[in-house]
Amino acid sequence: MAAPNKGRRQAGSPGRPGRTLALFLIAMVALTGGMFWSGHVTPRLGIDLAGGTSITLQAKNTPGKPNAINKTNMDTAVSIIDRRVNGLGVSEAEVQTQGAENIIVNIPRGTNEKQARDQVGTTAQLYFRPVLTVAAGGPTAPPPPSGSPSGSPSPSSSASPDTADKPAASTTPSASATTQGRAVTDALKKDATPTPSASGSDKPSSSPSPKPSGTPSSDPAAAALEKKFTDLDCTKQGQRTTVNQDSTPKDTIVACGKNSGGQWEKYVLGPSELQGTDVDEAKGVLDPQRGMWIVTMDFTGGGTKKFQSITGKLSQQQAPMNQFAIVLDGNVVSAPSVSQTLGGSAEISGSFTQQSAQDLANILSYGALPLSFEEQSVTTVTAALGGEQLDAGLIAGAIGLALVIIYLVSYYRGLSLIAILSLGASAVMTYTIMSLLGPGIGFALNLPAVCGAIVAIGITADSFIVYFERIRDEIREGRTLRPAVERAWPRARRTILVSDFVSFLAAAVLFVVTVGKVQGFAFTLGLTTLLDVVVVFFFTKPVMTILARKKFFSSGHPWSGLDPKRLGAKPPLRRTRRVSAPTDPKEA
Q1: Residue 398 and residue 523: Cα distance in Å, rounded?
Q2: Helical spans, DSSP H, in 353-480
Q3: Model-level pTM?
Q4: CB burial class (10 A; 0-12, 13-18, 19+) of residue 13?
Q5: Where on the phi/psi map is residue 429: left (φ > 0), alpha (ψ -120 to 50), or beta?
Q6: How many contiguous H segments (helices) and E segments (strands) does the chain have?
Q7: Residue 443 in contact with residue 390, Cβ under 8 Å?
Q8: CA distance to 206, 263, 474, 559, per residue, from 539 (Å)
Q9: 255 — phi, psi (to 5°)?
Q10: Using one digit for the tens of pLDDT, what is the confidence trace for 521-578?
């Protein structure tokens, strides 16, 4: 007969409950200490509890695409706006469509609320355009008619009072208003010569042959562009935002931007050679050599080839036509000059702060919106209504918890102490983890999440009841408490795991298929379900094993909840030796 394996613990044996309980308490103390050390001693609150800002955006058709407002583009815009806001660390921001043309963005009150508001409606259409000419940002007069003395003054050739004292940019071909107007004409004529293209084609365009400088253009489109350039006043915000709002990437446009000295300049820019979709990743970084914040961009494989082709051609041009303008939402944010062929990365430099550089990088990384949006309304949401609902929910939760405790005390008596301690441990773990998840992953507590936590009280109490009833069943079979505790555990453990698995699966499915606040309910339900397993395995079971050794419980005290008489226990089973009947008559 083989000797029993003494090194292997038998199923249902008590093990080392003290060590298990100590590990659980150490983990709970560590989490609580981490909560206080992080400075976030309360969970982050959602917009319905903390208040915040609600923004209504109305979609507008993209120039050249009259049917751009459709469900596909609206869903894409919602996804991009949501990623932008979450990229700033703002969680619980609700982004959803309302009707066919509106998007509602709800941003909870917090440190990044203003940044998120600035980014939600930014279209972020990024283009790289060759510079044809550049001039000071104020309005200028058109070139004089043919035959007039070059540079002769005229009533309309003086600079406006707003810009008379502003020096021209260093790359401006001429400082006078008259020659600035001629520079536009010359640039438009030079645009008929081969320009850099993404395809690398060197074939000249079929534009009319150049005319003498100062001769008005016979092309109506060129004349209209020339007039738009000379009339443009970049010092006025209204003109900066509307000057090219109806343009397409293939158009030659005029645009505004600031030079390194912070002065406004206006540009004539050729068709787009590279777009924001060619940018793979953007980052806002501090340049240690120059001591300034810049935005670095890495291009995709196709974007790298285009960028190399463009910079190779621009490097052969004379100033200012060796510059390419980085145009974001119609405004020139940077116009660097090119002296050699560049690789697959570029940078945007300017008067960036850390926040503005990181904001721009965040926008470029998550892509451009397929539609333009206009901010219709901005509403400040107060937490008064949510606070009243939270108070009502907490009162309901307190009443439910009190009823559960009353039931446990009246039915399980001494065992209710274990249940109450387990509920307390679960509450501490839940609160601590929710507080840490706020700064960790941006979790914010909203009203549905509070409901999920209240529902979890019943799930946790149900696990205790399953275990207690298994122990009572073993006592009814005539076993003493300590063997009953260990024999009941494997059966109760299976039931608890199956029950919690079903609850967690339901929470996971609900989290995946829903959006907005309902996800808060699902997340909290799933979290508390996992914590229920942890508490039952690492707290309730060890505490029950330790208390089973105490005389109050092991002796079956009437108030212990484990009195064999009250449970109707059977007498202990004892083996008796059977006496066989005699077979020999003499023995009888």
Answers
A1: 21
A2: 354-366, 384-412, 415-441, 447-476
A3: 0.54
A4: exposed
A5: alpha
A6: 17, 13
A7: no
A8: 83, 68, 21, 22
A9: -150, 165
A10: 888 999 999 999 999 999 999 999 998 888 888 887 888 888 788 877 766 555 555 5
Exposure string of 61-89, with b = 16+ CB inside 10 Å and e = fewer, is ebeeeeebbeeebbeebbebbbebbbbbe
Structure token digits, residue 280: 């793979």
CA–CA dist 241, 394 (Å, integer): 50
Summarised one tens digit per residue, pLDDT across range 124-163 is 677 888 998 888 877 765 544 444 444 333 333 333 333 3
Cα within 13 Å of Cα(110), Cβ side: 27
Under DSSP, is residue 151 helix (H, G, I), strand (E, B) or coil?
coil
Number of Cβ within 10 Å of residue 538's Cβ equals: 19
Q: Identify the pLDDT of residue 118.
A: 65
State the number of CA atoms in the 13 A half-sphere of 88 facing the CB. Answer: 28
CA dist 52 and 49 (Å) reads: 9
Residues near 324 by beta carbon (within 8 Å), at least 6 away in sequence: 128, 129, 130, 131, 273, 310, 311, 314, 335, 336, 338
CB 456 within 8 A of CB 529: yes
The token pair at 245 is 């709002």
Q: What pLDDT digit, counting tens, does each position of 28-80 carry?
A: 999 999 888 888 788 877 777 777 778 888 887 765 566 778 888 888 788 77
Question: Phi first, then psi: what are they for 27, rounded to 5°?
Answer: -65, -40
- ∠ CA(199), CA(200), CA(204), 5° rounding? 105
Residue 168: the pLDDT is: 33
Which residues neighbour 433 within 8 Å (Cβ) at sequence distance 6 or greater? Answer: 31, 527, 531
Give 581's DSSP letter: P
Which tens digit of pLDDT belongs to each residue from 280-321?
Answer: 888 888 888 888 888 888 888 888 888 888 888 888 888 888
Closest CA to 428 of 3, 128, 125, 34: 34
CA-atom Rg of the chain in angstroms: 38
Which amino acid is present at 53? T
